[in-house]
Amino acid sequence: MNRPARRTYLWICCLSLLIMASSSSAATPISLNNIRILVEESEGFEPHSWAPGNQSIALLSDKGDIHLADVKTGMVWHVYGGGPADMRLAWVENGRSLRYYVPAADGASIRTFDIDTGEFASFIIRDEWLGFETWRGIEAPEHRILVTMSVEDDGAMTYYGNNGSRPLLDWDAAFSRPALSPDGTQLAFQFTNNGSEESGAPAPRGLCVLATKSSDARLIDPDGEAPAWLPTSDWLIFSHVTREGEDVVAADLRVWSVESGEIRVLTASPSIAESISSISEDGKSIAFASHDGKIYTADIVYE
Asked: Which long-range contacts (CB under 8 A, 24 or more apart) does 113-117 make?
């Protein structure tokens, strides 16, 4: 290939890559398709994390038991029991081990569990109890972003990165359901304030997204719960809950744009009250729990 032809070829390749990147980042989730039951009786399971390759999903029960569900067959099998019920499960890159955070008075750690051998490996990260957390491993557990948050009304939230720690937020509120975006720049979480006007929280309860660099928090939905990020970090899927008093009477999945703040309705199924969800690593599929006790999977439709 002569030099002018090579230049033309390289220019076409670069242009094609730019077009692909542009179309990928501009993709907007608009609905769910092919909704199907994965687990008929979930026994308190929550869908936590899709395995690499999207063949199975890690489920966590309200008793701290870890199960795996085969996406194609719906077969569920038990792999570990007796862990903390508030674990945040994440797959190791090989797809055969799970990581989760263990708060303890004598040293909080990230623990790796091999689903084939049942063996554990622990990495001590702090010498104090940290409370609720969300974290994202980067190649190895010792290189990670960790955000801890209190489940009490003191509202403590702290960011731990490779360059040390710093406070993120100080509200008189209780935090839960932390979800760190894949790029580490946004933290979604639920909150319930302590009832005082001086709590600092923007509403009695709701779903917020906080920028990890600036600590700026945005109220996304006062009735939002259970956030889950798309792999591109530009869209957040969550459950919008309708209550009568403290009773849940309806729920649907919605999606929020980081860039525009737009919120779209993904589901509006009166027979299914969609709740906690988990998104596959390619962003094409979602698993979610429902208040009817079932776990569903579906395809995410983009435009």
From this structure: 113/66, 113/79, 113/80, 115/68, 115/79, 115/80
